[in-house]
Design brief:
This protein is α+β, with helices and mostly antiparallel strands. It has five domains: 119 residues, Immunoglobulin-like (Sandwich); 204 residues, Sandwich (Jelly Rolls); 114 residues, Galactose-binding domain-like (Jelly Rolls, Sandwich); 346 residues, Glycosyltransferase, CATH 1.50.10; 105 residues, Maltose phosphorylase, domain 3 (Sandwich), CATH 2.60.420. It is 19% helix and 29% strand. The chain is built from 15 helices and 52 strands. Helix 6 packs antiparallel against helix 7. The radius of gyration is 29 Å and the shape is globular. One of its GO terms (molecular function) is alpha-L-rhamnosidase activity. It is an enzyme of class 3 (hydrolase). This is alpha-L-rhamnosidase. Keywords: Hydrolase, Signal.
């Protein structure tokens, strides 16, 4: 069974240096796993947070107890693991090191810690339970389904398949003590017991390549089952399993088959006896329920006249329903789902509704969002309401749908004619701001509609506000775009007939996203998706899971595999992802060398610097050679950069020294060949002197010694003069532009790019009505075939720059996961204030600074059990005060580094001023 990381965070509050009894503990829900059931790793990692108002708090030791029952834990009887008092400051990613746990075992645990300020009490208890750890334990559970088209169903370009309504009546003769359901429902499911929906998830489970791995969800249903008759009910939707154009382009799009499910209900009775209920041919189903169609591209059709009253309760006669049949399993290995499902995470009230000339209504949500629409309607039986979704309008006020390609994106509701009817779909989502609604025979009210915002159940961990309103709007647009494209995997867009997890969109994007959302379990899962999609000889696809058979063998796209693993390490202190995936990354690196490295240069590139601003506003891709960067330049530079990461990964993985030597030698050869062929020492430029061609060797430290400043000056000329202070890069170059400009001392130019309102820029998008991030710099004018208005790939390193370079919230490379924080804002870039926060694995980090003239005030919060290096570039040390005390009179340690004052701060909140 694959190794997945399980983390539980506990908040320890109110430390006291006087008496242990004064220390209070507060238990939080699991931070990294909203439902800690069904864990399928034998040595999960445990974490906790220290929360205190005291300053300079450092953990010195911890003690963990893990027991098989709550009672034993209460009595400090740690029959599974007693760590003893461990002298360590580790408070995240501490491995469970107790007895080997079996399938379905429960583990109750608590922790106490010692700090330099005192000892805590035991925390409240936390719990995890093991999943089904072996295939053998699933073997007797059969998959059931019905591989048949019924009336109204079809397979083709616009495939249709009604939802399957499945039920099973069971009789429990004893009182239930505990019960858990282990469920695989392909492609999507909703599960009920006695008419009650189990869980708040939607669009579950998360998508995978079902021929490689299948996720099961686990629910504690002890309180839903009763002695006597019960009914288990499932609605099976299509999802990515069926009807996503598979039969339309079978050479491109994978096909998985008809919906199916497998279930185990494990029951323990109060008398100690146990029973397992499984899916078999006695389960009944009907294809004639109200969900007539459900297709992610095309929408959902719901006929309320076909509702089946009480279908999932005991008060129902299913004698005329069909029996389910044994069907072939999907083929992939069964895994406990270790990342949360999607949920309705927010709601949006529409801002306007307008009647059109043809009698329909245009609903404006006021925000480009991702999810669906809940409606309230009344009318006669059989009346039909249709809702077509789009991101923007034409000049005449009608929907602009050319950019949706052949996605029909229409939900349909057929009324049953019984007063007010409230409806929302179950098995689709849409990317939209506007909805054309047809079928109302009266004037609907704004209050009749609610937009439901749907994405993975993850916490928002970052906030950012600054003195520039354009940057604030871009941040808001990024927030909406990022969360809308989290769909159990990071997708490129939520609206057209694509919605694919392109690797190149997240190569650096995942890093920036992590400052806003706690996305670690999502990206751990995505690393597995990439691993599972790797070919036997080492190739990695362009999209993973490989729903599309695109194996372009590039470097800049496929490099996301390594870059995301590095992000998880840097931002969350996660070494496990690197160790787990190192062999597969190495296999890919060698595959690319064997097949495409010629004369020590990487010759294979597929997409180039995708989406550079073109020479004409009406075209998608530039044809001007002066704007385009040679693919060999991109792939060779990026390959060199990835070889540096492989050296780092080899050290973390404790692999043999020969691996490190190999990467080092290969990297040096690539660097030498790259500079020999592409570096022009006369004009200090690379290749054809595009900004991208120059920024990559600067960012990757490939420039020959003594030339970096000259190359940078040349690049600045290209940005500042030739491009008039505007972006000229595509997806590849934009990943490193902002940070490189700031690193070499031109944060002011980076600020100009970030705050621009004219084309091409992020601000131009906002000025032209964007409420998310466009796919193209010219997304309001380009050919409609590719101008999605909700992509995130062009964000590049902008959000990283917001936090690390403007706010000064950065994790140290030597102590990752924000164990040590680097706080080095560019106070002179052009902002007058920044107010930012980030909830790290250790707790909240805050950076609030304000600059007026020559006076700087800066409030810094450093979480317990961490430290920060705080850099000040203004004035001299005699002008610095910390908590109103002159620096040289305070107890704060400080030093001078490159003409900067560096404060060494332990945990706490500090008020810094410089006159």
């Amino acid at each position: 069974m694959r190794k997945i990381i399980f983390i539980i965070c506990i908040i320890l509050m109110s430390f006291s240096a006087i008496a242990q009894n004064d220390i209070k503990l507060k238990q939080l829900e699991c931070e990294m796993l909203t439902n800690p059931l069904g864990i399928d790793v034998l040595n999960p990692r445990l974490s906790w947070q220290i929360d205190t108002n005291q300053s300079q708090v450092e953990q010195t030791a911890y003690h963990i107890l893990v027991a098989s029952s709550q009672e034993k834990l209460n009595n400090n009887e740690a029959d599974l693991w007693d760590s003893g008092k461990v002298q360590s400051d580790a408070s995240i990613n501490v491995y469970y090191n107790g007895k080997t746990l079996d399938s379905r075992d429960e583990a109750f645990w608590k922790v106490k810690v010692w700090t330099n300020k005192g000892e805590t009490n035991w925390s409240e208890r936390a719990l995890w339970s093991m999943g089904i750890l072996t295939y053998a334990e699933w073997k007797s559970t059969r998959w059931i389904g019905h591989n048949t088209l019924f009336e109204g169903d079809s397979i083709g370009q616009f495939s249709k398949l009604s939802a399957r309504y499945v039920r099973k009546a069971i009789n429990l003769e004893k009182k239930v003590k505990q019960a858990k359901v282990y469920l695989m429902g392909m492609g999507l499911y909703e599960f009920y017991i006695n008419g009650e929906k189990i869980g708040s998830q939607v669009l579950a489970p998360v998508p995978t390549d079902y021929t490689k791995n299948v996720k099961y969800n686990v629910f504690d249903v002890s309180s839903q089952l009763k002695q006597g008759e019960n009914v288990l009910g499932t609605i099976l939707g299509n999802g990515r399993f069926f009807a996503m154009r598979q039969e339309y382009k079978p050479y491109k799009i994978k096909s998985f088959g008809f919906p199916k499910m497998a279930l185990q209900l494990q029951i323990e009775y109060e008398d100690g006896s146990k029973e397992t209920i499984k899916t078999d041919q006695s389960w009944k189903f009907s294809p004639h329920g109200p969900i007539r169609e459900n297709n992610e591209y095309d929408g959902e059709v719901y006929d309320a006249t076909k509702e089946i009253l009480n279908w999932n309760t005991t008060n129902f006669d299913d004698s005329d329903w069909l029996n389910m049949m044994w069907v072939q399993e999907p083929g992939g290995f069964y895994e406990g789902q270790m990342t949360p499902n999607m949920k309705v995470m927010d709601s949006v009230k529409p801002s306007a509704i307008t009647k059109t000339k043809n009698g329909s209504y245009i609903l404006d949500m006021g925000q480009n969002m991702v999810g669906w629409l809940e409606i309230k309607v009344k009318g006669n039986k059989g009346d039909t309401i249709s809702m077509k979704f789009a991101e923007s309008l034409k000049a005449d006020g009608s929907l602009y749908i050319a950019n949706l390609r052949d996605a029909r994106v229409t939900d349909t509701y057929i009324l049953k004619g019984e007063g007010d009817e409230i409806w929302e779909p179950k098995f689709v989502y849409h990317g939209f701001r506007y909805v054309e609604i047809k079928g109302y025979n009266y004037q609907p009210k704004l209050s009749d509609f609610i937009g439901k915002v749907i994405y993975d159940d993850m916490e928002t961990v970052g906030t950012f506000e600054c003195s520039n309103e354009t940057m604030n709007q871009v941040f808001k647009n990024a927030f909406w775009g990022i969360r809308g494209n989290y769909k159990g995997m990071p997708i490129d867009c939520p609206q057209r007939n694509e919605r694919q997890p392109w690797l190149g969109d997240r190569t650096t994007g995942a890093y920036g996203e992590s400052f806003i959302f706690d996305n670690q379990t999502l990206y751990r899962k995505w690393l597995d998706d990439i691993k599972y999609s790797q070919t036997l000889d080492g190739g990695i696809p362009d999209v993973a899971p490989a729903f599309w058979r695109y194996y372009g063998d590039g470097v800049t796209w496929q490099g996301a595999y390594l870059k995301v693993a590095d992000m998880l390490y840097q931002q969350f202190g996660d070494e496990e992802g690197i160790k787990k995936h190192y062999p597969y990354m190495k296999k890919w690196v060698l595959y690319m060398e064997d097949n495409y490295l010629k004369n020590d240069l990487m010759t294979k590139d597929k997409y180039g610097d995708w989406c550079v601003p073109p020479e004409s506003l009406e075209i998608i891709r530039s044809k001007d050679p002066a704007r385009l960067t040679d693919g060999e330049v991109l792939s060779s530079a990026f390959y060199y950069h990835l070889l540096q990461l492989m050296k780092k990964f080899a050290k973390i993985s404790n692999t043999k020294a020969s691996d490190i030597e190999y990467y080092d030698a290969l990297a040096n050869r690539v660097k030498t060949a790259f500079n020999t062929k592409y570096f022009n020492k006369e004009n200090f430029s690379y290749a054809n002197n595009t900004v991208t061609a120059n920024v990559l060797p600067l960012a990757f430290n490939m420039v020959p010694e003594g030339y970096s400043d000259k190359v940078f000056e040349n690049m600045v000329h290209q940005v500042e003069v030739v491009k008039n202070g505007h972006v000229s890069t595509g997806v590849v170059g934009i990943q490193f532009l902002m940070r490189t400009l700031t690193q070499f001392g031109r944060g002011d130019l980076a600020f100009k790019l970030a705050s621009n309102k004219t084309y091409p820029s992020w601000g131009y998008m906002a000025e032209n009505g964007a409420t998310t991030i466009w796919e193209l710099w010219n997304g309001n004018t380009a050919d409609p075939k590719m101008n999605s208005q909700n992509h995130v790939m062009l964000l590049g390193d902008l959000i990283i720059w917001y936090y690390e370079n403007m706010a000064g919230v950065k994790s140290s490379e030597t102590n990752p996961g924000f164990k040590e924080i680097i706080m080095k804002p560019d106070f002179d870039a052009g902002l007058s204030y920044v107010k930012a926060s980030y909830k790290s694995s250790y707790g909240i980090i805050k950076s609030h600074w304000n600059k007026k003239g020559k006076r700087l005030t800066w409030e810094v919060t450093v979480p317990p059990n961490t430290s920060a290096k705080v850099y000040l570039t203004l004035g001299n040390q005699s002008k610095i005060k910390i908590n109103k005390i002159k620096l040289d009179k305070s107890e704060t340690k400080f030093s001078t580094e490159n003409n900067e004052t560096v404060l060494e701060l332990k945990s706490g909140t500090y008020h810094i001023s410089v006159n």
